[in-house]
């Protein structure tokens, strides 16, 4: 009898030890990715607005998560959004408010990691085309450059103009991209004003080409324009994609939060060494001046702030009649579940 008890006990102990030995590697192993090859669409990758995406790509953080990421760059966020809605890209690196716009059209997309906590968009008046500019009302009938019609640069311009009593139809919007083409469009007189991101706006400002009349490149400026915190660049995908590929979305969030953590302590020379040379637009000093201006607008930990979606909805509904605030379920526009895990992993 004693032997049997001893054997049973020994067997139970050995079985428990065996189970523990199997469990430990399972806990440490990365969960299997449902999809390792991912297509990301972005509108204006060279802009500081998307710097966390570039950093995560250039430093190999996507690869470290087992991802093979292909990034397609479009002229503006609205074009990148079309790629994701049309199915030629899996994920969009774009403006948070697109998730609200899409829901108003009965299409459900969710942001799952934040890259920017301020839109980093400035509206500037051409000093050459409008030397006698006094108020925003002077823009009636004028041509305003934006990265692409329907993009966040367009949205910020609409919001600022609406507060001055102007409708979107009172001006003409022209897509000029977010790089050298935007500089050329303003300097050659093709447009009278421009709503765009950095480094373009700082370059124009420092050379005296524009007079800045509205600025969301800082947290204070964002508060002045929007009246609250305004989530900006993020990774978003269809709710269906996120539900089917949770481990893949976690890996993407991890890579971005890893990049955000690196950016918290990166010096100007680190940035210069990491981004592609073409991003500098031929002027290192001005590029770095721009970076210092927008640095605080970069997200810290990938989490969408609690009050942010409300601010975004209020802003959109104030000038876009197709967005009905009472019909939008903000809880469906974002999830912090992936960013929270990534924040814990990297202590961001």
TrEMBL record:
- Subcellular location, record wording: Periplasm
Looking up Pfam families in the UniProt record yields: NMT1
Location, primary (coarse class): periplasm
Q: Which SUPFAM superfamilies match?
A: Periplasmic binding protein-like II (SSF53850)
- Residues in SsuA/THI5-like domain copies: 49-263
Q: Establish whether keyword Signal is in the entry.
A: yes
Which interval of the chain is the signal sequence? 1-28
Q: Which InterPro entries match?
A: SsuA/THI5, TAT_signal
Q: Which PROSITE patterns match?
A: TAT
Which GO cellular component does the record give, naming just one?
periplasmic space
Source superkingdom: Bacteria
UniProt GO BP: alkanesulfonate transmembrane transport
Enumerate the UniProt keywords alphabetically: Signal
The UniProt similarity line reads: Belongs to the bacterial solute-binding protein SsuA/TauA family.
PANTHER family the record matches: ALIPHATIC SULFONATES-BINDING PROTEIN-RELATED, TAURINE-BINDING PERIPLASMIC PROTEIN
Q: What is this protein called?
A: ABC transporter substrate-binding protein
Protein species of origin:
Variovorax terrae
């Amino acid at each position: 009898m004693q032997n049997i008890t001893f054997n049973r006990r020994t067997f139970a102990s050995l079985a428990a030890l065996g189970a523990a030995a199997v469990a430990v590697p399972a806990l440490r192993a990365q969960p299997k990715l449902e999809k390792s090859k991912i297509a990301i669409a972005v509108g204006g990758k060279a802009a500081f607005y998307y710097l966390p995406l570039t950093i995560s790509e250039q430093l190999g953080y996507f690869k470290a998560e087992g991802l093979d990421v292909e990034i397609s760059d479009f002229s503006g966020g609205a074009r990148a959004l079309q790629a994701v809605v049309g199915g030629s890209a899996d994920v969009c690196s774009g403006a948070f408010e697109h998730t609200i716009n899409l829901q108003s059209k009965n299409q459900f997309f969710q942001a799952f990691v934040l890259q920017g906590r301020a839109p980093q968009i400035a509206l500037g008046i051409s000093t050459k085309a409008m030397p006698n500019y006094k108020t925003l009302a002077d823009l009636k009938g004028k041509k305003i450059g934006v990265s692409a019609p329907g993009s966040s640069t367009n949205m910020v311009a609409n919001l600022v103009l609406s507060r001055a009593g102007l409708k979107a139809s009172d001006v003409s919007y022209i897509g000029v991209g977010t790089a050298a083409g935007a500089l050329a469009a303003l300097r050659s007189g093709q447009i009278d004003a421009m709503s765009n991101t950095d480094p373009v706006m700082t370059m124009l400002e420092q050379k005296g080409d524009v007079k800045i009349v509205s600025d969301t490149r800082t947290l204070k400026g964002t508060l002045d324009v929007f009246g609250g915190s305004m989530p900006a660049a993020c990774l978003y995908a269809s709710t269906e994609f996120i539900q089917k590929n949770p481990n893949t979305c976690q890996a993407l969030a991890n890579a971005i939060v890893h990049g955000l953590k690196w950016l918290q302590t990166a010096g100007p020379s680190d940035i210069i060494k990491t981004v592609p040379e073409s991003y500098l637009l031929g002027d290192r000093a001005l590029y770095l001046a721009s970076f210092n201006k927008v640095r605080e607008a970069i997200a810290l930990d990938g989490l969408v702030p609690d009050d942010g979606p409300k601010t975004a909805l209020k802003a959109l509904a104030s000038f876009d009649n197709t967005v009905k605030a009472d019909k939008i379920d903000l809880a469906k526009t974002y999830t912090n579940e992936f960013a929270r895990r990534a924040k814990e992993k990297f202590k961001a």
